């Protein structure tokens, strides 16, 4: 997982030194100390404590009267327990040219699609950096060519994705690996081209009154690996299998007053008979109470339902789940915010996941981040069952500089 960032960063000095002198540029970054404390010992006697240090560096350069831009974002983490979580990534090294009614980008970038809270079904361009967090929000940089066309009838985007990146997984010393060690550096591909298979994607977005919507299509190597076809039971490990997939997606958001109504839906089709074609959707809302109880606080109430037509055969925890949550923004000088949520599996009685995320600024340069997750599952057929002894609380102190 380190080889690609090292290869691409070798070109960084050449790229920056060849840029025009005129224009604007900026440099900033952050250094974070993070500690996780698990409530119980692991099944394989792993440590309850896990500490790490992360460094992010960002560079931005504009020239040609703002028509051209270079964005660079690098990331490193060193973990004291899990060697697989000690990793580096070049999140972005991307040049963008802005035309009158189009944009063209080339390099290593990150693209986000989606509107829902609990999962982003349509978000398929970038690979998940799962060693960072199990919520799937962190993404690896993706080599891409991207063309956007802005018209009166909406925005059209075309992507060529010439290189595939494997998902990161925690190692045997990690606690959030679901009890199975994934050999992420030894994958199996359906495509004979392996990681060099050319993937393509298309997206159309538009706004009609209070509705914002997107239609998307992706064809290529699935970002989600199949983990159960190459298990080595003797060593408790597996080689991830990455099939070819065609995914059709729809995301919609309706805005009216304090209401946000959200929908993400997909259809995934596979050529491999052992992997089931399936449809999935997440439907939800968010309602914001401004100045709740006469205060300066804003309270957002959230609810979502996730469905997968595979039912109990689904490889995701969101096959028949109800999520309820609340987001509290204090609107203070420290930008303090707390998000709390509970997901209940309607198929498996007694299965639930609870989380709390909070953040505040200590001063202009330092922030405090807290995250807690609690897992409970009774049935070994429930995908959440493998995390039942992995509840934890995490604290991070992050220093920002420029």
Spell out the key features of this protein.
402 residues, mainly beta, 2 helices, 23 strands
Secondary-structure map:
Layout: H1 3-9, H2 12-17, E1 24-38, E2 49-63, E3 68-79, E4 87-98, E5 102-109, E6 142-151, E7 154-161, E8 181-182, E9 188-189, E10 199-208, E11 211-221, E12 231-232, E13 237-238, E14 241-242, E15 244-256, E16 259-270, E17 278-290, E18 298-308, E19 320-329, E20 337-345, E21 352-361, E22 366-376, E23 392-401
Parallel strand pairs: 8-13, 9-14
Antiparallel strand pairs: 1-2, 1-23, 2-3, 3-4, 4-5, 5-6, 6-7, 7-10, 10-11, 11-15, 12-13, 15-16, 16-17, 17-18, 18-19, 19-20, 20-21, 21-22, 22-23
3D architecture notes:
It is a single chain. The protein is mostly beta strands. The chain is 3% helix and 52% strand. The protein has an 18-stranded antiparallel β-barrel. Strands 8-13-12 form a three-stranded mixed beta sheet, with no helix packed on it. The radius of gyration is 22 Å and the shape is globular. The relative contact order is 0.12.
**Portion in beta strands:** over 45%
CA-CA gap between termini: 28 Å
Query: Quick one: biggest sheet?
Result: 18 strands, antiparallel, barrel
How does the helix and strand content classify structurally? mainly beta
Low-confidence stretches at least 5 residues in length (pLDDT < 50)? 6-15
What's the average pLDDT?
Answer: 91
User: Can you count the beta strands?
Assistant: 23
Helicity range of the residues?
under 10%
